[in-house]
């Protein structure tokens, strides 16, 4: 909570739950990444928070952008980025979207199989491609699935296929898992990337770039290592596995760039119990999974929640959203301790919500409007 957000909330007109993002925090986060990994280009992951205010600020600071769709490409361009600062980082793209990105000037594309390479070769001839490899994501609060990437041995074949089709086989990418708490997690992925570099070189294909992906965490209930710690560990891994031939590197922070910059203010709608014998309370807020808190799915992300009664006696609660959907329960498997004095009408502050909230908010489920957002 910054003083700027506190002042905004004191003076805002009541209009339901809202997200407030302090752009000064985003600026500070960008500068921390730039200092901690000075030889890496920052490609902000637009999907984390695609607001024009965030994109324009980052573009003015010199950031590049990792995009997942043509719409995100157009948003980055509108914010002031040039096409050479944009990566089409989704490995699952319609060919007509590849063609549109190429028309807009984008020349950097992610792939993870031969069929995707062939799309790029047809629709964006001569472009650079990097191949995403699988990574186990150990140590991440939200390990990523096998949906994206291929085994490193297959990546060599994919990149050779790209080379034969006239594309520039540019490099390798990986993702160590969202909210990665272990700064050493990049080491094994870098070892795999270095193996792909060597195998490609044996075939006469000289790669240039390693995309280190995202995974840089935001602080929720537990402390996380500083960005500088990640930077040092990654540099040591690059030296260990690439020696003096360190390749060009890029990073794709999303959550780590904007997560701690945002606060959601919500309201307690109901406090109840399910039976006379049951002590645990149900606390219903005017925001839930369908209002922007989808990352509470499987309780992967546990947001800090502040109340006007912090310091009072606490007891465990089950927290749920307002919609008529039984899945709209945030924390039940591991109940959440909240003040016993919490009451209907109280405002609560949900911290660390600058990433993946507005974009996960439903358009009009049950008639509830999308999450309002303010960037100050």
TrEMBL record:
Belongs to the Orn/Lys/Arg decarboxylase class-II family. Its EC number is 4.1.1.17. It catalyses: L-ornithine + H(+) = putrescine + CO2. It comes from the Bacteria. SUPFAM superfamilies: Alanine racemase C-terminal domain-like, PLP-binding barrel. Its cofactor is pyridoxal 5'-phosphate. This is ornithine decarboxylase. Gene3D superfamilies: Alanine racemase, Lyase, Ornithine Decarboxylase, Chain A, domain 1. One of its GO terms (molecular function) is ornithine decarboxylase activity. The active site is at residue 324. Pfam families: Orn_Arg_deC_N. InterPro entries: Ala_racemase/Decarboxylase_C (IPR009006), De-COase2_N (IPR022644), De-COase2_pyr-phos_BS (IPR022653), Orn/DAP/Arg_de-COase (IPR000183), Orn_de-COase (IPR002433), PLP-binding_barrel (IPR029066). Pathway: Amine and polyamine biosynthesis; putrescine biosynthesis via L-ornithine pathway; putrescine from L-ornithine: step 1/1. One of its GO terms (cellular component) is cytoplasm. Residues 26-258 form the Orn/DAP/Arg decarboxylase 2 N-terminal domain. The modification N6-(pyridoxal phosphate)lysine is found at residue 47. Keywords: Lyase, Pyridoxal phosphate. It comes from Chelatococcus asaccharovorans. GO terms for biological process: putrescine biosynthetic process from arginine, via ornithine.
């Amino acid at each position: 909570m910054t003083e700027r957000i506190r002042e905004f909330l004191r003076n805002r007109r009541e209009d339901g739950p809202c997200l407030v993002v302090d752009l000064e925090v985003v600026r500070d986060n960008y500068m921390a990444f730039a200092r901690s990994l000075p030889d890496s280009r920052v490609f902000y992951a637009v999907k984390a928070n695609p607001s024009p205010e965030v994109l324009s600020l980052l573009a003015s600071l010199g950031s590049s952008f990792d995009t997942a769709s043509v719409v995100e490409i157009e948003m980055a361009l509108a914010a002031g980025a040039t096409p050479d600062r944009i990566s089409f980082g989704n490995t699952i793209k319609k060919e007509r979207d590849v063609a549109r990105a190429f028309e807009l000037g984008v020349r950097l594309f992610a792939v993870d199989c031969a069929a995707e390479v062939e799309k790029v070769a047809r629709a964006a001839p001569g472009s650079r491609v990097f191949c995403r490899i699988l990574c186990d994501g150990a140590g991440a609060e939200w390990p990523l699935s096998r949906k994206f990437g291929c085994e490193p041995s297959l990546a060599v074949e994919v990149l050779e296929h790209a080379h034969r089709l006239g594309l520039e086989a540019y490099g390798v990418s990986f993702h160590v898992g969202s909210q990665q708490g272990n700064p050493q997690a990049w080491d094994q992925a870098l070892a795999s990337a270095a193996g792909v570099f060597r195998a490609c070189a044996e075939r006469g294909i000289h790669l240039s770039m390693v995309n280190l992906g995202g995974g840089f965490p935001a602080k929720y209930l537990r402390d996380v290592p500083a960005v500088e710690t990640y930077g040092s560990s990654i540099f040591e891994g690059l030296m260990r596995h690439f020696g003096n031939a360190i390749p060009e590197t890029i990073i794709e922070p999303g959550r780590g760039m904007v997560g701690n910059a945002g606060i959601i203010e919500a309201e307690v709608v109901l406090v109840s119990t399910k039976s006379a014998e049951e002590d645990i309370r149900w606390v219903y807020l005017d925001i839930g999974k369908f209002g922007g808190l989808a990352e509470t799915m499987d309780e992967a992300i546990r947001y800090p929640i502040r109340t006007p009664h912090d310091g009072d006696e606490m007891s465990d609660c089950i927290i749920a959203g307002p919609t008529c959907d039984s899945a709209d329960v945030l924390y039940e498997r591991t109940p959440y301790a909240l003040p016993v004095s919490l009451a209907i009408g109280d405002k609560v502050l949900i911290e660390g919500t600058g990433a993946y909230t507005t974009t996960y908010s439903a358009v009009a489920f049950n008639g509830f409007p999308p999450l309002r957002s303010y960037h100050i």
